[in-house]
Each structure stands twice: as structure tokens, then as C-alpha cells.
Design brief:
The protein is built from no helices and seven strands. With 83 residues, the chain is an all-beta fold. It has a single domain, classed as F0F1 ATP synthase delta/epsilon subunit, N-terminal (ATP Synthase, domain 1, Sandwich), CATH 2.60.15.10. A seven-stranded mixed sheet has the order 2-1-7-6-5-3-4, with no helix packed on it. The radius of gyration is 12 Å and the shape is globular. The protein starts with 5 loop residues before the first strand and ends with a strand.
Length: 83
């Protein structure tokens, strides 16, 4: 049975902003808004504007950003901000 969550780490130069699991992740790239769910295919993109972490209890955490790089691989999202 596939996992219903995805592992996520959001880093900036001076530390980690979030590390844990999430139900989904949303952000913006040059094409527009996109969402990442559990078991997403491998994916790399630049991001801008904001990120939204959809937590397992139904709440969400929004972080305004200037820019960053996002990578999805093997049910894990890595976000590097301020790149």
C-alpha cells in the first residue's frame, strides 16, 4: 500500500525551516501553480512566490519566498531557498 504522505525538508542558507512529513506540497514555477502528492514522479524545478505545506491534520503552513530550487526523488521533497 503506497504511503499517503511525502517526506519534506525546506532549507535556507542559515538552517532548516521545516523537516517532516506532509500530505501535499504546493508552489509556483515559471509555468504556474503546481502540487506534489505522495509517490510523485522524479521532478526538478525552480520555484518562486511562496510554498504551501499541507500538513496531515488538515492545516497548512505557508512560507513567502523569493526563489528556490525543488527536487522530488523517491517520495522525498528537498527545497533549497535563496539559491
Amino acid at each position: 500500500m503506497p504511503s499517503e504522505t511525502i517526506n519534506l525538508v525546506v532549507r535556507k542558507r542559515d538552517g532548516v525551516l521545516y523537516e517532516g512529513s506532509a500530505k501535499a506540497f504546493s508552489s509556483l514555477n515559471e509555468i504556474g501553480k503546481f502540487d506534489i502528492l505522495s509517490m510523485h514522479s522524479n521532478f526538478v524545478t525552480t520555484i518562486q512566490g511562496k510554498i504551501t505545506i499541507h500538513l496531515t491534520g488538515g492545516s497548512k503552513k505557508e512560507i513567502d519566498i523569493e526563489n528556490g530550487v525543488l527536487r522530488v526523488k523517491e517520495n522525498k521533497i528537498e527545497v533549497y531557498l535563496g539559491i
